[in-house]
Amino acid sequence: MSAFSRPLSARRRSLPPAFVGAGLSFLGASAVVAAWNAAERFAHGWWLVSFLALVGGVAQLLLGAGHAALRPWRSGVRARWSPDRLAVLWNAGTLLVPLGVLAHTRLAVVVGGVLLVATLSGLSLELRGGLTAKAGRAPRWPVAYVVVLAVLAASVLVGMWLAWDLAWT
Fold it and tell me: CA-CA distances (angstroms) from residue 56 to 24, 47, 97, 110, 116?
């Protein structure tokens, strides 16, 4: 049985712990911020809840799952970036963006966005390296992973533009 014919639940053990641990931590943090904002509203509260849950939690778990799915496809291909390094970049960007928004510092938002784009670039380079190293028919999951990477990259770039170009209240 090939590594790709197994269900994703059977490959769960191969998920990078850095992505999973941080992703679950961001989901927990978003729940805490949601409770805090419900009790006492603060500026950008619901945006912060959404950002922590979607970018820090859901997106990070999807990126980790995609990276884990790459592992058997990349067999024999030297990884340029370790999963831990990619997770550090993603988490640094995920922390810098809301800190910049809450402190009204556009530069921090842009630097955080650049770190997020750098992570997505590293993941896409690994995907490209794995697909070019293997001849023959590729499984269908890389198409979904490319869509996730593209949507996240577009979202980061639009968010950086909005943060830089629009006045904050």
Answer: 8, 13, 11, 16, 11
pLDDT in tens, 46-82: 999 999 999 999 999 999 888 887 766 655 555 667 7
Residue 75 contacts residue 132 (beta carbons within 8 Å) = no
State pTM to two decimals.
Answer: 0.82
Question: Which class for 16: exposed (0-12), middle (13-18), buried (19 or more C-beta within 10 A)?
Answer: buried
Distance (Å, rounded) from C-alpha 102 to C-alpha 94? 13
The per-residue pLDDT for range 17-44, each reduced to its tens digit, is 889 999 999 999 999 999 999 999 998 8
Cα 37 to chain center, whole Å?
24
Distance of CA 5 to the CA centre of its chain: 25
Q: Is 91 helix (H, G, I), strand (E, B) or coil?
A: helix
For tokens 């409770």, name the residue: 35
Q: How far apart are CA 163 and CA 124, in angstroms?
A: 25
Nearest to 149 by CA among 47, 24, 64: 64
Q: What is the sign, positive or negative, of the torsion defined by CA atoms of 132, 134, 138, 139?
A: negative
